[in-house]
Each structure stands twice: as structure tokens, then as C-alpha cells.
Amino acid sequence: RGQLKIAVAAMAARCRLAARFHRVHGANVRLDASRTRATRVESFANGLCFSQEPLAPGQIFLVEIEEKELGWCGHLRVGLTAHDPQSLEVVPEYSLPDLVNMGDTWVFAITRSHNRVAAEGEEAPGRARAPHWEPFLLIEQVRIPRDTLVGRSRPGRYSHILDDLYKMNVLPATARRSRIGVLYAPQPDGTADMHIVINGEDMGPSARHLPTARPLYAVVDVFASTKSVRVIPVEYGFPSLQTLCRLVIQKHIVHRLAIDGLDLPPPLKSFCKHE
Questions:
Q1: CA atoms of 182 and 80, how far apart (whole Å)
Q2: What is the Cα–Cα distance from 131 to 208, expressed in whole angstroms?
Q3: How far, in Å, are 138, 183, 235, 273 from residue 146 at the CA level?
Q4: CB-side neighbour CA atoms (13 Å) of 35
């Protein structure tokens, strides 16, 4: 038990360090003082960002789309690279194809749907959705608290129409407030599979046979119609009592507007509806 506590504490410390962007980034990127928000200030390219630290096995690097910019074709791109950002003489203009062409890099464009990569000789079955109130997302041997992973739209006049979408965690992947994460899961052969998580749903392996002998950094390309993203820290451990209350309440209501009629403290109502 003592070793488990040490391991959890080490993971938490590593997550705090990695939950911000690296000082090395694309020419058009501006970071805030905390290096948790990246904004592309001009054009549609030169928006490459990296995690501050290489990721640990099973550790997710999660971002939320904060701002969109009309007039461009394309969206956020995410992935992993074995290149230390500090070693790059020049940050490539694009993750696809420039950074990928440097080798040891796996990047995918985020769209409204995302296809898994089947193993050799395997058909790609449909993904089984876990209930939206399930508190953990399980990816092979990795267990991540689901609540932080889910992007939520603000409730409005027509929330009751969209509420089935909200319950199924299918806020469009490219929408404002959508949350996208990337991680790698070690395999028995010593390699790893890369997984992309969109609003609490595992998209399945996006790339296989990644080498684990070298550190792997998260790649976030603030590209085209995606203008600004923010890093979301993920706490590994048991869900808070507040989170468990929200999950139970959401399980038993018709839609989010019904929360307003419940005898609950206003902060808890707000938390249940959209935070």
C-alpha cells in the first residue's frame, strides 16, 4: 500500500509538471504566463505546441478548445513525438506533414469522427460506449477519471433538444469547449499504442508499435479554425464527492434545465449543469 501511495504521488507530481506547454513552440503561438493557454495570433499555421515534459505511460495530455476562428479549413491536430522540443533547430510550420516527416512522430487531425487502427488481421468493430455516469474511462490497463475529460456546452434556451447529445458525451469534437487528449498505452511486446480521447470517449488505437525506449512528448497543433486551447489538469485518483453527486443527479434527470428546479445550492446546480 505504501508503494502504491508513492506511485500515485509521483504520477500526480509528474502530471502537474506536464500539464502546461513547452517554452519551445511555433512562431505564431503566444502562451500565457502560466503556459497553460496557447493562442495562434495570426495566419493559420506555425501553431505547433508541445507538452512541457514527456508523458508517462498512461498519462493523458488534455486540452480544451477555447476559441475558434472562422474562415479557415481544418481543425486541431494532436499526437506524440519522440523529438525533444528543445533539440529542434526550427519548429516546423505544420505537424502534418512537416513534423511527421521528421520521423518518430504520430499526429492526427481531429474531425467530427475519428477512426481506430485495427491490428493486423483484425476487423475494426464499433466502439462500445460506457454509460455517461461511469466515473472512470478504462483504456487497457489505464484508468482515468472521466469527469475532467468531458467537454460541456453551456445550457441555453434549447438545451432540452441537445440534452441527449450531452448525456452521450458527443459534443462535436471540433466545437468550442470540446476536450481532446492523447496518451500511450504500453503493450506486451514492449511497444505502445497511441490513443486519442475526445470528450471522455476513447477513439481506440490511432497508431500502434510506438517505441517506448525514448521519451514521448504530446503534440498540439493549434491549426486553422482552432485559434486557442487550454491545458486541463487531470487528477488521478478517486472522484470527489461533488463529482459523484453530479453523476447521480445527471443519471436521474430528463435534461439539464430540470436541475434549476431541484433544491440544491446554486454552486452545485452550476457544477451539475455545465462545469
A1: 8
A2: 27
A3: 9, 14, 10, 16
A4: 15
Burial 204-235 (b: 16+ CB within 10 A, else e): bbbbbebeeeeebbbbbbbbbbbbbbbbbebe
Query: CA–CA distance from 72 to each of 69, 94, 150, 209, 225 (Å)?
Result: 7, 15, 26, 33, 5
- Amino acid found at 190: G
The C-alpha R_g of the chain, in whole angstroms, comes to 19
Q: Please report the sign of the dihedral spanned by the C-alpha atoms of residue 67, residue 72, residue 75, residue 79.
A: negative
C-alpha cell at 164: 441527449
Q: Which value, to the nearest 10 degrees, does the dihedral of the CA atoms of residues 78, 82, 85, 91 take?
A: -60
CA 210 to chain centre: 19
As separate numbers, helices (DSSP H) first and strands (DSSP E) second, the chain gives: 5, 13
Q: How far is CA 42 from CA 29, 46, 92, 102, in A?
A: 8, 9, 16, 25
pLDDT digits (tens, 9 = 90+) for 54-100: 999 999 999 999 999 999 999 999 999 999 999 999 999 999 999 99
Angle at 3 between CA 2 and CA 4, to 5 degrees: 90
Reading the block at residue 177, the C-alpha cell is 469547449
Q: What is the pLDDT of residues 237-265, one digit of tens each?
A: 666 676 777 778 877 877 767 888 888 88
What residues form DSSP beta bridges with 197? Answer: 181, 202
How far apart are the C-alpha atoms of 153 and 171, rounded to whole Å? Answer: 7
C-alpha 18/C-alpha 217 separation (Å) is 9
Question: To the nearest whole number, what is the mean pLDDT of the chain?
Answer: 82
Q: What are 215-232's pLDDT values in tens digits?
A: 999 999 999 999 999 999
Under 8 Å between Cβ of 233 and 21: no
List, edge to edge, every strand of the sheet that includes 226-231: 29-31, 37-40, 226-231, 61-68, 179-186, 191-198, 201-211
